[in-house]
UniProtKB/TrEMBL annotation:
It comes from Cryobacterium sandaracinum. This is Aminoglycoside phosphotransferase domain-containing protein. InterPro entries: Aminoglycoside_PTrfase, Kinase-like_dom_sf. It comes from the Bacteria. Residues 100-160 form the Aminoglycoside phosphotransferase domain. SUPFAM superfamilies: Protein kinase-like (PK-like).
Amino acid sequence: MDEEVLAGGNSSMVVRVGDTVHRPAGPWTPAVHQLLSTLRAAGVTAVPEPFGMDEQGREVLSYLPGIVGNYPLPSWIWSSTILHEAGSLLRRVHDASAPLAHAAAEWQLPAHEPIEVVCLNDVAPYNMVFQDGHITGLIDVDMASPGPRIWDLAYLAYRLVPLGEYADPDAPDWDARLGRLDALIRSYGHEFDQAAVLRAAAHRMEDLAVFTDQRAADTGRNDFLEHAALYRRDRDRLLDMIASLKAP
């Protein structure tokens, strides 16, 4: 069957073949496939089903139909419905992944302490599939690794509240964002306070900046340096938000 290159990701090597997606594999692929199978067995069918490897050594996954939230984001991404569904779905993923968190496995990214669940590490609109204004899928989970629940929730908040430096004219006003953060935490269903999530998000930004600096050094691409600088500005913004919460 013909291969259709799927746009929107960081790689032009992801293709659709009929109702399947074929992607480059790595040493972490068996752990990711076990994670996907475990999630689906627990009733979390919003993730792809793994079908092993093809004759070219690529992983094969089921294709999830719908619209991926690529940038620039459509205005409906910011609906309260999607915010609620995202938090609720992430909680279900985490709960179902917990039995694998301490299992011996090779992951692409290092674990983060304290280990509680398997984090997807990149839960954001660009890795979500939507149909009719609802989240119907999570894709590109090959960055998963064990870590604390708040590590994933903080990055989801960064992208979907949002908490960063956005030029999107349709994004919620800054005055609304702490309320949206509260709504996301409630949807996840765990008693995290705002400062704890913001602090974890700031940690994520520094972690991303260091990772992106290394990508710039490895590739010679100056745009990665610009992204790293953005992450550090967002880190500082998040720290300012924490300070304002503590102010009398």
